[in-house]
């Protein structure tokens, strides 16, 4: 995003992460700080041996400059020489809205981005929320942890960072609109809407079958098994035997070939329904192996798997070293700006390490710079005026060719389609599956099914509306339809007669090609960067494989839970007395998808600047590490041999008390966070002064007595409805949220008032509701449309490419194009 000037006036993680992503893609970012400095400078402070260092500041504010802002200066005056302003606001929005309106009136090309917990409107618009509440309000916490224990947040403020990534996409879309129309915009990001969009099929399962996803511990709920974590002699391993081939290979790897005699076990959901039985066998097998032994035999049999890596393991990863991923501060006490990419400290002295950019954009990624000291970093090299690309065009004029599967890749292209791009999804005729079980088996299984019941295993994975596959089951897949709205569909077999000719003509008309195949899959499909540039010398390419296109692990097969384990995220998540825990969704997929969208828009911007082709090699492993970046900085600064910090459940070093508390009712919970002494005073007024020890007025004392404070809080929450308790706490100025289930979110008064859920059924279909856009604009256009039927746009697209009706009929006769799977 070179040539873009951003003033970040936010003081929280979401805004900082947003600005970091844009800085890493080339934008000039200046952080506006109060005279005492940003609150982030006091987060994750580590004793480096040469003085305290904030891991959060070093990570989130790398490649930025700092300026001290007079609190009395108007927003319009502060924004006079920039293109974008980033704000985060908690609580009453009235004053901020007036300031924003005035600034936009005076600066019509300005893009103002405002990040809030719940948006500008609705019953909760004045509510507060921090990182812990983000896990609760977005429905993710309800899916994490054991069903008989309190739900778990992830092991860091990762969802808050995803809110920031979503904001970055909104800014990029508004900048493209501004560059092509001269009109700025107000970009509104609510954490609720951003995080509702960060689910896999949780919402589809509820809106299509009436089932709220729940917690399943370390299993991947409802659809697949084994896709889980297992304990070995010296650690934990993630095993992902999902497909038929992987299940067969897994049974052979375990020397349990007798399981192959169970025909029903070839259905993944049947295996999930028998998870207790299977886990006895799998756990017994894993318990006899070291992690290295288990992974070796599984990978030798082509079973996706990997160790549950610690943060330290990832810091020492040969894969990341081979890809030059880490940036090293020359020393923890070095002057601001003293940083080197992929170099250790002089004389072998250990140095703090930071994750590099989420991906390197050809020709656009800037050298790494250390986070600035207060009021420093403006070295005179900043641009004097706007420098936007002359070749920019509206996203409605951008053509995207999509070769993706699962979630991460489809999410990138869905976001681009939602923003107006012409996304053409190329699918093999078998891409959505070969066939459903015989109709009589499906009908027998559906007998007695009622709304709200989990469908039987034969049809469960399709998440069909009303549990009805219908005759065209491949067009009724609820999870597929969620991921693939706002696209056109071309069902094309590249290896059939004429398939490559279609591809060549299509790529010649395209702006960007996106795939999330493994490098082997890219080569097999004939869509390598070099091959695509032969078809279109100016093409932008985004390859987003699990581990990246280079390095010793490049060819490894990955699923989201495997990357969850491989990245260190699972190792950081868990109860204080437990082992590691995976997320309830394939979390690295949404991380990769959001970061991939940022990178795709930045790569297009770079192409418009230079008129040159731009290639990007994105590793989803590296994007997953990015969301936990300051935790890796902190880990890299621990003395050699120091023990890993314990898992903290819902607690944090930045606030006390902070936790998950039981409320009245079945599996009802609430989170709250007290991050300063004034908020503690407000909480004691609710709890009753007699319940609270006088010494708890200091943060240090509250950290020390956290267990006792939790008991006092839970005596109060246990007698209250979770929604009413959250409202009572919010009224007192305390950040709190009910742990929302998917059903809670869909039916919540605030969600309804905001229009969170949208219907994008195709014409003639029953309504089908999914979360809508994760951001809102005043002027930037959006273009949501229903997902395509298989091959729905074959004739339209081929006609645009110059094919005659007779030639199209010939392609159908040769099975090069299709509108249904082969019989």
Q: Numbering strands along the chain, what is their spatial order in the largest sheet?
A: 5-2-1-6-7-8-27
Rounded to the nearest angstrom, the distance between the terminal CA atoms is 48 Å
Percent range of helical residues:
25-40%
**Based on helices, strands and strand pairing, what is the structural class?**
alpha/beta
Count of runs of 4 or more consecutive helical residues: 34
What share of residues are in beta strands?
Answer: 5-15%
State the major sheet: 7 strands, mixed
Topology, element by element:
Elements: E1 5-8, H1 13-24, E2 28-33, E3 45-47, E4 52-54, H2 55-60, E5 65-68, H3 75-78, E6 84-88, H4 94-106, E7 111-116, H5 131-137, H6 158-181, E8 185-190, H7 191-196, H8 202-209, E9 227-231, E10 236-240, H9 244-253, H10 268-273, H11 275-286, H12 291-300, E11 305-307, H13 311-315, H14 318-322, E12 326-329, E13 339-341, E14 353-355, E15 359-361, E16 399-403, H15 408-418, E17 422-427, H16 439-446, H17 457-460, H18 478-483, E18 488-491, H19 499-508, E19 512-515, H20 519-525, H21 529-535, E20 540-545, H22 560-566, H23 569-572, H24 587-610, E21 614-619, H25 620-627, H26 629-636, E22 658-662, E23 669-673, H27 677-687, H28 699-704, H29 706-717, H30 722-731, E24 735-738, H31 742-747, H32 749-754, E25 757-759, E26 769-771, E27 776-777, H33 794-800, H34 805-813
Parallel strand pairs: 1-2, 1-6, 2-5, 6-7, 7-8, 16-17, 16-19, 17-18, 19-20, 20-21
Antiparallel strand pairs: 3-4, 8-27, 9-10, 10-11, 12-13, 12-14, 15-21, 22-23, 23-24, 25-26
Helix pairs in contact: 1-6, 6-24, 15-24, 24-25
